[in-house]
Amino acid sequence: MKSEYQPKVIGFLCNWCSYAGADMAGTSRMRYPQNIRIIRVPCSGRVDPLFVVKCFQRGADGVLVSGCHPGDCHYTEGNYHTRRRFALLREFLDYLGIAKERMRVEWVSASEGQKFADLLSDFTAELAGLGPRSKILDG
Amino acid sequence: MARIGVFLCHCGSNIAGAVNIPEVAEAARRLPQVVHVEDNKFTCSDPGQAAIQQAITEHQLNRVVIGACSPRMHEATFRRTVTGAGLNPYLLEIANLREHCSWVHPDQVEEATAKAIDLVRKAVARVAWQEPLTPKHVGITRRALVIGGGIAGIQASLDIADAGYEVILVEREPSIGGHMAQLDKTFPTLDCSACILTPKMTMVGQHANIKLMSYSEVEDVSGYIGNFRVKIKNKSRYIDMSKCTSCSECVKVCPVELNSEFDENLGKRKATYIPFPQAIPNKYTIDKRGYPPCRVACPAGVNAQGYIALISQGKFKEALEVLRRTMPFAGVCGRVCTHPCEQDCERGQVDQPIAIRTLKRFMADYELKTGREKAAPVEMTKEEKVAIAGSGPAGLACAYDLVRQGYPVTVFESAPEVGGLLRYGIPEYRLPKEVLNNEINYIQELGVEIKTNTPVKNLTEIFDEGYKAIFLGTGAGVSQKMGIPGENIPGVLHSLDFLRQVNFGVKVSLGSKVAVIGGGNAAVDAARIAQRLGAKEINVVYRRSRAEMPAIPSEIEEMEREGIKIQFLAAPVKVLSKDNRVIGIQCIRMELGEPDASGRRRPVPIKGSEFTIDVDNVIMAVGQGVDKATLPEDLDYTNWGTLCVDPVTLQTNIDGVFAGGDVVSDPADVIAAITAGKEAAISMDRYLRGIDMEEGRPETVKRVEEVSKAGVISKARQSMPTLGVGKRKGFDEVELGFDEKTAVEEAKRCLNCAICSECRECEKVCEPEAIDHEMQDEISEEDVGAIVVATGAGPLDHTQFSIYGGGVHPDVVSTLQIERMMNAAGPTGGEVVRPSNGAHPKEVVFISCVGSRDERTGTGYCNKVCCMVMAKQAIMLKEHAPDTHSYIIYVDARGPGGKIFEDFLTRAEKEGTTYMRGQIDSVAKQDGRLLISGQDFLSNETFNIPADLVVLATGLMPNEDAARLFQTLHISYDAKNFLLQAHPKLRPVETAMDGIFIAGCAVAPTDVPESVTQGGAAAEYVLKLFSQESIEAEPMTSIVDIARCTGCLLCQQVCPFQAVEAETLRDGRTVASINESLCKGCGICVAACRPGAIKLRGFSDQQILAEVMAL
Amino acid sequence: MDKELIQQIRDKARNLLEEGTVEGVIGYERASDGVTSRPLFVYNPSDTERLIYDETCAHNLVKYLLDKKGKKMAVVVKPCDSRAINLLLNEGQIERDNVFIIGVGCPGMVETNWNHKSETLQAKCRTCQLSKPVVYDFLAGGEIERQAEEETYSDITEEEAKSVATRRGFWLEQFGHCIRCYACRQVCPGCYCPVCFAERLDPLWLGIRIAPEENDMWQTIRSFHLAGRCIGCNECERVCPVGIPLSLLNRKLEKDVKELFAFQAGLDPEEKPPFATFKKEEVMEFEK
Amino acid sequence: MNLFASKDDLIRWIGELLKEHIVIAPVQVQEQTLFQPISKAEEVVFDFNNTTLSPKGWFLPPTETLFSVQKDDGKVELVPTQVERDAVIFGLHPCDARGIALMDKPFLEEPSDTLYRERRNRTALIGLACRQAQPECFCTSMGSAPDDPSNVDILLTEVEDGYIVQVVTEKGKTLLPKGLAEYKGKVPAPPELKAVPTREVISAMRELFNDPYWEQVADRCLHCNICAYVCPTCYCFDMRDYADKGKVERVRSWESCQSPGFSLTAGGYDPRTTKGERLRQRFYHKLFYFPEQFQDVACVGCGRCVRDCPVNIDIREVISNLQQVTEAKSGS
Lengths: 139, 1111, 288, 332
Prior knowledge:
The complex is a heterotetramer of chains A (139), B (1111), C (288) and D (332).
Chain A: E1 9-14, H1 18-27, E2 36-41, H2 49-57, E3 62-67, H3 78-95, E4 103-107, H4 113-130
Helix pairs in contact in A: 1-4
Chain B: E1 4-9, H1 21-29, E2 34-40, H2 46-58, E3 63-68, H3 71-84, E4 92-96, H4 98-102, H5 109-128, E5 136-138, E6 143-147, H6 151-162, E7 166-170, E8 185-186, E9 191-192, H7 193-206, E10 210-213, E11 216-224, E12 227-234, H8 249-253, E13 257-259, E14 268-270, E15 272-273, E16 285-286, H9 293-297, H10 304-312, H11 316-324, H12 330-336, H13 340-344, H14 356-370, E17 385-389, H15 393-404, E18 409-412, H16 421-424, H17 433-446, E19 449-451, H18 459-464, E20 467-472, E21 478-479, E22 492-494, H19 495-503, E23 513-517, H20 521-532, E24 537-541, H21 553-561, E25 565-567, E26 570-578, E27 581-595, E28 601-605, E29 611-614, E30 617-620, E31 624-625, E32 657-659, H22 662-665, H23 670-689, H24 740-748, H25 761-765, E33 778-784, E34 786-789, E35 794-795, E36 812-814, H26 815-822, E37 843-850, H27 866-880, E38 885-890, H28 899-910, E39 914-926, E40 929-936, E41 941-947, E42 949-954, E43 956-957, H29 962-969, E44 996-998, H30 1008-1026, E45 1031-1033, E46 1038-1040, H31 1050-1054, E47 1060-1064, E48 1070-1074, H32 1084-1088, ...
Parallel strand pairs in B: 1-2, 1-3, 3-4, 6-7, 6-34, 7-10, 17-18, 17-20, 18-19, 20-32, 22-30, 23-24, 23-30, 24-25, 34-44, 36-42, 37-38, 37-42, 38-39
Antiparallel strand pairs in B: 5-45, 8-9, 11-12, 12-33, 13-14, 15-16, 21-31, 26-27, 27-28, 27-29, 35-43, 39-40, 40-41, 46-49, 47-48
Chain D: E1 2-6, H1 7-20, E2 22-29, E3 32-37, E4 63-72, E5 75-80, E6 87-92, H2 94-108, H3 114-121, E7 123-128, E8 154-159, E9 162-167, H4 170-175, E10 181-182, H5 199-204, H6 213-218, H7 226-230, E11 237-244, E12 247-254, H8 275-294, H9 304-308, H10 315-331
Parallel strand pairs in D: 2-6, 6-7, 7-8
Antiparallel strand pairs in D: 1-9, 1-10, 2-3, 4-5, 4-12, 8-9, 11-12
């Protein structure tokens, strides 16, 4: 078990929907892989693409940016900006050799604890499949 | 240098059970700037909090990290704790070791511990960068908005208002009361619902502190706790509430009847209505849904639904009045109109469109038959005289509209008789002169002066005579020639001349063989006249095929029935003659090639396919043109020889001269000419009053969005009686029109698409003159400090559950329908009956959990109230008729709410209700009754119960458009549109949005007492807010570092709250500046700012980066 | 050299200076190698005779307007460079009234090195569709009919077709050459932050290492900060002393921005750039 | 005594050197020639114009860790970076060799820079005389020459069918392979170079510090760091401590006076904010301050900055402009 490769995942979760959704997964005692480390932000629109690039530079195997569903943003429009910024960044990082599978942008509402748990299981499994990404050297 | 204290909470075994706390503590001790670490069984407990405060003092901590539950849980608690020890509340960071760690990784101690260490390290790194923040204080508008006037909203409103604060209660229906008002009795006490609800409703209506805005909807909400600004749309009732006396006179005359929503479609109501007798406010509402499709389709905007509704009530004269509000030609258009209205008629989607044209004609026929009182002349209120050239449909329509506005109108007609093309272009068998004359007389009686034999040649002269505006509607009166050899031989006639001669009684002699060239109405008319003049063998030669033929299809049909042949795909090449007499016509066969500019396929001659038809006469009906010679000079013409006008105003190149009809458009139909006349009348009125002629034109009208066709029983359109072919010798009219009975029958088929038909009969009877059909929706803005959302939920439509016979068998009903039937004021006067035949039902089967506890058909969870509702109704059915036997087929029978609820279920069973736990397989019709088959889970046997009535207890769901409102309010809701609470246990009436509270069924299905409790609780939160002097606003807002700002203002473009302004510095540089009271702290601008000039306090780049670096 | 065109530029520059319309004129002059050209700032009417224009005048002079904020300047602007004017106007960096644009048609610039010019057109010129600047006050020499190839981004799609690992290897090698001289940034008209993220101390996004792991982030963010803003003058690639194919980065973003948001930078000074706006109904790949 | 080595001899010799040394030599990477450690002799290119970067990077690498700090259970340990092996720089041109000699002045003057000194002591230089000059070359005006042997341990000069091997130092002698024959032929004459007047300009610079010339010439300067990074004598650097989860490293990287933030002080004051001030600093350092301190001009005339400057700021032109400015001043 311990020798198994454990991808390092960093998640940026908006306070109002996704962080609450992750809380919901907790209160509902759902289980998901331990790999993620969650950073709370007020809105997914707060996530500067620099943070994500920094995560990868620092050796993260996967990065999750998660916000409210379109139309539900606590700040009305933040996630629409998130969507544009990261649609482009994902493509660009992939082009630079960081596979787009390593970066997820997801909409998770406060009630979607199950979705959050499922998403992490799936993401972690996918990253494990891609294999380790030692610092910046592998794709 | 920060002195950070780390406090690790065991949370009993919630965290400590999965995380090795000593190990985490040991790791924390080694972190930079950490000077103190301790752990505690329950940090949130008093001793736990005291320990933190003590440590802060003892170790001179200036930052605190607490590893515990989610910050969403206790951040506020711990902020108070550190404040108690003199620390700024924001110098605190919580590592979420419970929801994000121990609870989700319960049996991976090693991994969970490693993760917990990471989370603590991350929190330490972050808090080191945290600066002390001071909340701002903002004022509170002590005024509340309650959305939803059901029992929860009523309770909330009353509680707030009684405490002395103003409340705005917004209800989208015409009355408050919600679903509770529909109930007959309430469980488990069997109180009369109305008896306990209506006093509360009345109190709302009369409370000095409550501003009731019924029939209103919240459009937009901006602002924040204590300071919301709300936009409310007050939907137009078309009845002035301040004048309405609720006398119900309008209801008596309203011709439109529809299913009553309040009575769950079991009863009827009128387009003007009060939902139920005790409604608050007790004022009428006219239900208008826009323009009906027929009215939208009519170029002239004739309100067909209006007159059809009145015809259906036998009010024929009044019906004609409706038509005459738009135009004067009921008899004419009722005969010759191309009726685009019928194409768009919604009834056509059920079976066939309403015979709108024939109904229109019927009104004119009825008037002719019963005699018309002379019309009273219009009072000439305007001084400006208006001249109209041409007395065809365009000119007369224009004159009609202008004279009714009080303009003195003179019509100049060059011909000896009035009517233009209506008179000389349409044969008598289609439009009897008597009909036309009646309508022209009517126009003249109103005060229009008509001068015949007076052509207009010189516009200056007309102006000199004192006319201030001129309309030219002189038509297109010249026949076009074909340009083939032999066209000028006597015996070759042109259709217009031919029709004109016949219509003016000039004798025209024809041979026995006639060819008519063309495929339009003029060709068909000419052929049929030729036959009536004695021609024996008539051939219509048309160069395209039947599909392209522009004449009215019914006319073509009648023509063929009269024995006239059509040569399709043939064109004349030359007229053959002998001794200057026509002997035949040579034609060539055509085939259809590529579509031309008009979209019709262009006919192409087939070489060598010439053929000859022997004829004595040829009638050319290939088109008409404008006769320039008859028109004044100095007007601009198009390349096609028609007049040039502005497409919107219809003004020509000369100021004050307007034109419309065939003279502009080239030959079109009558309704197009009428439309042109009406449009010109609008322009001329505006021209004369000096108003902008183009503003708001062309007018856009709101077509009704959806027309319900549920329950409409198919019924064929009444057919038009015609004169037998054998009797068609002279010029007798061929179509005979409807009699009164047929007309009423036909009119009753109308679906009343727009609900209110705008027949305006109500205006006539409303003594206080409260009715205003032109009333507009009003938007008002209100400032409030708190909002209670109690928008409720409604039962799923039982007719969608066809597996239980819903929507299939009329005797499968919903619980609310039973409720209405039981109600003495309900549609059946308190008798529960079988809708199919009105009989008393003896066996009744209730089916529970329809669309609840069933993800496939509705919601996955329990609807909470149905078990009690079914028990109540079973008891009541027995009470109403002791011979009734009820079955309740349940999944689980529940009595939540305490002993009396459970007792109530027992009582139902004791009083003879058969409870069966099971599942329904089918509901089928058998011998006029219903057979309910299924499985009994307790006996493991199948059952077959014959019943008279099946009642479906359907799940409750929020209204479809609730999500839009919730989005406007920025409050969270789930996939089924139920609202989410700030915390499902501890903050049940709060939302994540401060200052917005929730109550009632909008949150989850609740019964009446629970809704009342929640309404009261929400009010209590509002009052708690209002009792504060001011509110602390989140200090986590953004700030601009002007040294780094480039002034690109991308931040301004992305800010959803208009919080960014451009500011010019003394050195001339433009930079962004953030208005803190508008900033909500989302940080969208921060992420957009490339130069890193914006800092979000509490979520700075340093802080988040420190977290990334710590992982 | 088109003598007539050059004379028009000189006359216009002289006029503008003599009439006091502008304080200075930014144009081109012959470089010290006698072959290539270099930017020239003219403040004195007599110096206008030094102005030249030919196929070696690759420099995008618009960048210099940022140094001369608040001053009235005239600038010689090629069609591609003119998009930078629109970019800077859109982002409020220059005032239209302060800039007099001497537009020049462009036959395409050739590849040059110190003391050497080739016959080969620069790659960006081969697909340039602009016959004249998108914005100008005076057009010297008139429009030039160009027979441009269609921009197919074939080099980009070729890269895209390779495996992620191959691309990673390629870029790591390229970024390995980077010496962080920041010439790409300094020459770029879109790079004007008072303190570049790469040199910011609060927060410390990036260290000072001239090494692949930091060069990588430097180039990633540099290009991404130009997403939807790069106007394709390709000056960054031209000035790179170690030959990193930066156009492959910028044009990849240009292509994606075009495809995802239907936007091209610098064509319209009023149009909202892709990160300033959004469409509620749009659906991105990760949502499908 | 000059020896002779055929091309094959050289290849064998490099092979020998590789056994005990790191050999840094010019190699072709895509379109550029760079000094890089080689793994086999065949990689070396002999016929090249000045490399993209000078070989100064061996002694002052673009980035290096000076030392790291380990913190464990309260104990703090400082671990300096070690120079592991001896090295040979093979094939450097005389101008680059002079660049190293000039760098020695500030770095080896006491207190000397430990890492630089270590590397310098353990590195031998085998130079290669230039048979051709490029238009940008002006080494003869800057105290060197295409065939200057003074700053290398061994100098190679290409002749018809091989190379003259001129042993300059004792250290050079130890590197020699066995069996090279004596070279008796003619030593070819070095290429001629155009002179740039230096001395007279430098003496006049004291008066030119506030001359508007600097702002004018800086108008077109982009303030990139190309000139400094390709220069064999520019040695400015920045240092920063990297701390990551308890581990600390002190890192030194190249930096340049042309960088906008170069002279920014902690208090926020920047003595050189304008483009002219920054550009002036570069020329004053090279032509005035360095000679004041160390007697020599800090330029070797390799021509790299001339070649690579994107906006053609040509040091030779600057020098002659300064001369004109001075003349104009004295004339008035």
